[in-house]
Amino acid sequence: MSEVIGIGSALLDFTYEVDDVILKDLGLKKGTMSLITESGSEKILQKMKEYPVKVSPGGSAANTMAGIAVLGGNGAFIGKVGNDINGKIYIAETEKFGVKAHINSTNAMTGHAITFITPDSERTFATNLGAALSLRPDDVSEEAISKSSILHVEGYLLEGDLKDASVHAMELAKKHNVKISVDLADPSLIARNLGEFKGIVRNYADIVFVNEDEAEAFTQKTGHEALDFIHLFCEVAVVKLGAGGSLIKQGDRVHTIEPVKIKVVNTNGAGDMYAAGILYGIAHDIPMERAGKIASYAAAQVVGQAEARLNERIDVNSI
């Protein structure tokens, strides 16, 4: 039995700490995410072979499931990797984190995100989605979803060929009375698919996560007005405000969650960990204000380190 099951792009993270000169040499624009070809990926990794690298399983929904495990919950993940060494590493490391892997494989390169962190904590990504692009409805386990309390969907799966798998997963969740959580992921993604995304959220979502920019892209509003608008579509609306904390609306109550102050090292994965805190709280019937405090604390711990995931268990009772 999984408390939360996520579906998303299975991406192996290669993380480097670099200065701006390296980004310029690689032809990458600082602070952006660039999609690259397999050959482009090989060229970058070849150029970076002399630099220290941290390798770990990643992807937004997968990170959130790892966060569930760190908080002491039971998480599971549906994704797709390649029949290569990186695919084997991804599955092994996912289960090492304590997440049940419902991951199929195919004859393609395992998707990966080459992440560059500069001294100012800015993140720059060069991403090859690889095998993650081949996730299809028949990769989705109905049994796994039926045995979960919440299905968590990353917004990147709601566009293009991947949409069929995510919609199928949400249909199965509705069939088995499993709550559905959606993280809308990226403002440009929302802008490209606004009408369709509103339909998906209205028809499926019980819980919606956005940051400030995503909230504005989805609602053309900001702050509490955006929160109220999103709440029209779902039971729980969450607007993350970064250093400003977060806003959560459930029923007729709005909870203002203060941020936990910490020295910023890297913001990669903070939003995913925040979602883990909220979903863990919902799965355990924890009052929403306390769930928000757990989420804020856990996200801050990610911000204070270089990696996108926490490796040590958090005792939620100490928060």
Describe the protein's architecture and organization:
This protein is α/β, with parallel strands linked by helices. It has a single domain (2-9, 59-108, 133-318), classed as Ribokinase (UDP-N-acetylmuramoyl-L-alanine:D-glutamate ligase). It has helices spanning 20-26, 38-47, 60-70, 85-96, 142-146, 163-175, 187-192, 194-204, 212-219, 223-231, 270-283, 288-303; strands spanning 2-7, 11-17, 33-35, 54-58, 75-82, 99-106, 112-117, 123-128, 148-154, 179-183, 207-211, 236-240, 246-250, 253-257. The chain has a nine-stranded mixed β-sheet, with helices on both faces. A five-stranded mixed β-sheet has the order 3-8-7-2-4. Helix 9 packs across helix 10 (223-231). The longest helix has 16 residues, at 288-303. The radius of gyration is 18 Å and the shape is globular. The mean pLDDT is 94.
